């Protein structure tokens, strides 16, 4: 996953300290793969995955739309060249003044999951299109997202009915099957719920037009994942199964699947030690940890591939940790990570598959450590 362009950049530039390097060629290839896999779905890149201006400009030039979580992300997408019609305010939790600001900027597509959020939008973005997020079980995902966002399908009917009564455009339904979703059937279960909401409201004369099928498309870490084409086939089959010949407009929101495998973090071994003379598990401390951008190692949910200059020799399990004075800054301990016995202090380690959710999760200056530097090539 470390492309030759990334390796050449690191060899020639020799950046100091931990840094992320993203190869735009990989991002372009990923976008084209999604476009080919789901040709009838609009692609709304999830800006939160990696909001680097170079990535946003590339995707805008390719025709991508954008899923945003804040006014700041809306402005980033606009600055990258996206028209307001290509931007969705996809966060279901918004301040009323942010709804008003988004409306001023021309945004007309908003996510909701309760009547209270509908009321805000009716007051500050009259006539806007809204889609209601439905809860999913997240089964099969490495990072389930099932509780904070969304509502039960029966409540979604109430929410969209309320939106219609307030003069909003009850536009559709959304769901998210969970991040790093490897179960191809996950969309089938969620689309069944979406179709039920469509059918229930149709009986009342309210015609929904759009299903936002969210993200969840994975990137490869230590295990192989299905290709974009496999997801496309499974999703299209599920759409035909539940909607027949009346398939609505569809949206997908890839984030991790768009940029995850495009990035590599360069790090350095700061210390290797043991906790007792007879301890057979080494502790390997890197110059980057949870607070430097590897927050998704929380609960060891995401296990990144590590490449070291000592690969090929005998390995043994070790605990991997970051450099900060915080006991939570441990990456892998429940399931120790096999690394070469020859690994030594000062060795450079590449952490692959880190193009998504690293720079955005990095703290500003916890313990005085600089935020993660990023280079987009």
From TrEMBL:
InterPro entries: Ala_racemase/Decarboxylase_C, De-COase2_N, De-COase2_pyr-phos_BS, Orn/DAP/Arg_de-COase, Orn_de-COase, PLP-binding_barrel
GO MF annotation list: ornithine decarboxylase activity
Presence of keyword Lyase: yes
Needed cofactors: pyridoxal 5'-phosphate
Keywords of the record: Lyase, Pyridoxal phosphate
Domain Orn/DAP/Arg decarboxylase 2 N-terminal: residue ranges: 27-259
Pathway(s): Amine and polyamine biosynthesis; putrescine biosynthesis via L-ornithine pathway; putrescine from L-ornithine: step 1/1
EC number of the protein: 4.1.1.17
Keyword Acyltransferase: no
Enzyme class: lyase
Family under the similarity heading: Belongs to the Orn/Lys/Arg decarboxylase class-II family.
The protein's name in its UniProt record: ornithine decarboxylase
Protein source organism: Nitratireductor thuwali
Source organism phylogeny: Bacteria, Pseudomonadati, Pseudomonadota, Alphaproteobacteria, Hyphomicrobiales
Gene (UniProt): ldc_2
């Amino acid at each position: 996953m470390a492309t030759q362009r990334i390796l050449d950049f690191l060899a020639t530039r020799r950046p100091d300290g931990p840094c992320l390097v993203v190869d735009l060629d990989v991002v372009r290839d990923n976008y084209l793969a999604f476009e080919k896999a789901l040709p009838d779905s609009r692609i709304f890149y999830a800006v939160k995955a990696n909001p680097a201006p170079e990535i946003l400009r590339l995707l805008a030039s390719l025709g991508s739309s954008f899923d945003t979580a804040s006014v700041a992300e809306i402005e980033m997408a606009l600055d990258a060249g996206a028209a307001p019609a290509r931007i969705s305010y996809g966060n279901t939790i918004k301040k009323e003044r942010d709804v008003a600001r988004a409306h001023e900027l021309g945004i007309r597509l908003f996510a909701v999951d309760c009547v209270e959020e509908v009321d805000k939008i009716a007051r500050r973005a009259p006539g806007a299109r809204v889609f209601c997020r439905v809860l999913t079980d997240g089964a099969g995902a490495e990072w389930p997202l099932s509780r904070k966002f969304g509502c039960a399908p029966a409540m979604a009917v109430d929410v969209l009915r309320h939106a219609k009564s307030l003069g909003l455009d009850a536009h559709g339904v959304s769901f998210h099957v969970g991040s790093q979703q490897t179960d191809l059937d996950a969309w089938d279960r969620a689309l069944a719920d979406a179709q039920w909401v469509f059918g229930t409201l149709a009986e009342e004369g309210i015609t929904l037009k759009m299903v936002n099928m969210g993200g969840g498309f994975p990137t490869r870490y230590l295990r192989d994942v299905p290709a974009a084409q496999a997801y496309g086939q499974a999703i299209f089959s599920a759409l035909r199964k539940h909607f027949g010949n009346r398939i609505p407009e569809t949206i997908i929101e890839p984030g991790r699947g768009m940029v995850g495998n495009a990035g590599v973090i360069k790090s350095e071994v700061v210390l290797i030690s043991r906790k007792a003379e007879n301890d057979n598990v080494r502790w390997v401390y890197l110059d980057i940890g949870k607070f430097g951008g590897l927050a998704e190692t929380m609960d060891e949910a995401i296990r990144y591939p590590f490449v070291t200059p000592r690969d090929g020799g005998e390995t043994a399990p070790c605990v991997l940790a970051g450099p900060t004075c915080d006991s939570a800054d441990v990456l892998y301990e429940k399931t120790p990570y096999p690394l070469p016995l020859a690994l030594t202090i000062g060795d450079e380690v590449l952490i692959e598959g880190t193009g998504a959710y690293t720079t955005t999760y990095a703290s500003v200056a916890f313990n005085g450590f600089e935020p993660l530097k990023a280079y987009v090539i």
